[in-house]
Amino acid sequence: MLKDITIGQHYPTGSAIHKLDPRTKILVTFALIVGLFLVKNFIGYIFVVSFIIMATIISKIPFKYMIKGLKPLYILITITFFINVFMTSGESLFHIGPLNVTREGLYQAVFMAIRLILLVVGTSLLTLTTSPIMLTDGIEHLLNPFKRIGIPAHELAMMMTIALRFIPTLLEETDKIMKAQIARGADFESGNIINRAKSLVPLLVPLFISAFRRADDLAMAMEARCYRGGDNRTRMKELRMVKQDIVGFAVAGTLIAVLVFLRL
Amino acid sequence: MKSMIEVENVTFQYKNNEEEIKALKDISIKVKKGEFVVIIGHNGSGKSTLAKHINALLLPTEGKVMVKDMDTKDESNMWDIRQTAGMVFQNPDNQIVATIVEEDVAFGPENLGVTPEEIRKRVDEALNIVDMIEYREKAPHLLSGGQKQRIAIAGVIAMRPDCIIFDEPTAMLDPVGRNEVINTIKKLNKEENITIIHITHFMEEAVNADRVIVMEDGKIVLEGTPREVFTQVEKLKILGLDVPQVTDLAHELVKEGISLPADILTVDEMVMELCRLK
């Protein structure tokens, strides 16, 4: 059960988009988010949607898979939709009980729902096409210039790498402890919410103890391998911007320019 | 020949609940370059504490530890010492840092500031030595214990150490994994000429060593070639340590009046000697 969780949801296909420099993808995604908030009418969306569809086709990720990623969000999208429908004042269309549905409300609701969907699809395109390690690497490089104002870029990236590394290990361990406790009569599945929360204590205590022990061991192993922070450290795989990255920036730049133009 | 490692009159003391505990008591050991030394002893005999001294993870309370003529107490030597004397720990899961095998092997050289091309070369070389090259793009958590431990060994080899300290590397492995790791260690000593200090409580793993050191209660109680040490069956038994099964069998047979040499260490030798009996 626990093993089904996949963090980052990386979907490798080896496409041109997968091979882009992670920095390019992060920056383009960031620009896309900003662009989405610049959009004021549906014409703007046509451009964003065609950009996302184009990127998805190039990335060879099946559309079905992308849509599946929206499922957990549909409650959020529905709530936003209805709040917008009922809470916007304007020309009244019809009434449902005390609630007043307005033309502006309906327009606003559809508009916001599309924005949310595009936001999720756009950002999931980043995680689907970039492995967690590349993502961390990209973030580290992008944060590097801010080191001077005290942002610990290397340390943040190292923490993310170690967290990613230990997710499967700790999940396995949780499974093991759970089975050990079930074998001794623990019940994790029945009772009300308070009882269930209480039954997690014999699971969490050993898990935390072992996690701390692992942290201690790992710190020692890292020291033994001469780890001394990010200074003077080299990397085996260096990030390099190539022609494709420039193309990526150009396309994203054009999109932003169009969106800004439409807004004027 | 010059000594690789010199441990001189080392005492190590630490506090546990206001109680002073001496983990090492006036220990002296010299290890030559290229030597294969096995240290055996019970849990709490101080063998792991000793290992951590050689890597400058712990510093002696009294006495001194020299690695290739570098004093571990001198902080400016610390990184050179850790590069010279690599260390492999017991739990393979807790010493792998990265989420991809080759990235993990690269971790050590990256810390040393080696150039990217050179790192690539060393990583491939190290993975070849431990016979794990075909797994280089796999995620470590999908590998078996023995494979993970070999990755950890590759991570140390990639730093080009002269000496590797193994702190019970087989304690958490199944027999298959244990064999894999032991064969890798032997190979490193024979083919790469790396000085090995192997800490274990499996007696069978000590048979191939150049020298065996038995520790008990922070002191060295026996020292010598495997033959010299394991023939002292009675003494080892008093210490509560096992001898290799074959040696034990030979010892029992000699006691029953069968004329066998008392220093049989391997099954092959036993077969030879038994066939010679008439």
Write the layout of secondary structure elements.
The complex is a heterodimer of chains A (264) and B (278).
Chain A: H1 16-19, H2 22-38, H3 42-59, H4 63-68, H5 74-87, E1 92-96, E2 99-102, H6 103-129, H7 132-143, H8 153-183, H9 193-199, H10 201-224, H11 243-263
Antiparallel strand pairs in A: 1-2
Helix pairs in contact in A: 2-6, 2-11, 3-6, 3-11, 5-6, 7-8, 8-10
Chain B: E1 3-16, E2 19-32, E3 36-41, H1 47-54, E4 62-67, E5 70-71, H2 78-84, E6 85-88, H3 101-112, H4 116-129, H5 145-157, E7 163-167, H6 175-191, E8 195-200, E9 211-216, E10 219-224, H7 226-230, H8 233-238, H9 245-255, H10 267-276
Parallel strand pairs in B: 3-8, 3-9, 6-7, 7-8
Antiparallel strand pairs in B: 1-2, 1-4, 4-5, 9-10
Spell out the key features of this protein.
heterodimer, A: mainly alpha, two-stranded antiparallel ribbon, 3% strand, disordered N terminus, B: 278 residues, alpha/beta, Rossmann fold, four-stranded antiparallel beta sheet, 10 helices, 10 strands, 37% helix, globular, cell membrane (chain B), ATP binding (chain B), ABC_transporter-like_CS (chain B)
Question: Which pair of chains has the greatest number of interface residues, and how are they split between the two chains?
Answer: A-B, 29 and 40 residues
What topology, given as strand order, has the largest sheet of chain B? 6-7-8-3-9-10
The Cα radius of gyration of chain B reads 20 Å
Helix content of chain B: 25-40%
User: pLDDT under 50 segments of chain A (min length 5)?
Assistant: 1-7
Q: How many separate structural domains of chain A?
A: 2
User: What would CATH call the homologous superfamily of chain B?
Assistant: P-loop containing nucleotide triphosphate hydrolases
Strand content of chain B: 15-25%
Q: Report the helical percentage of chain A.
A: 55-70%
How would a textbook summarize the main sheet of chain A?
A: 2 strands, antiparallel
Number of strands of chain B: 10
CATH topology of chain B: the name is Rossmann fold
Please tell me how large the radius of gyration of chain A is.
24 Å
Question: In which order are the strands of the major sheet of chain A placed?
Answer: 1-2
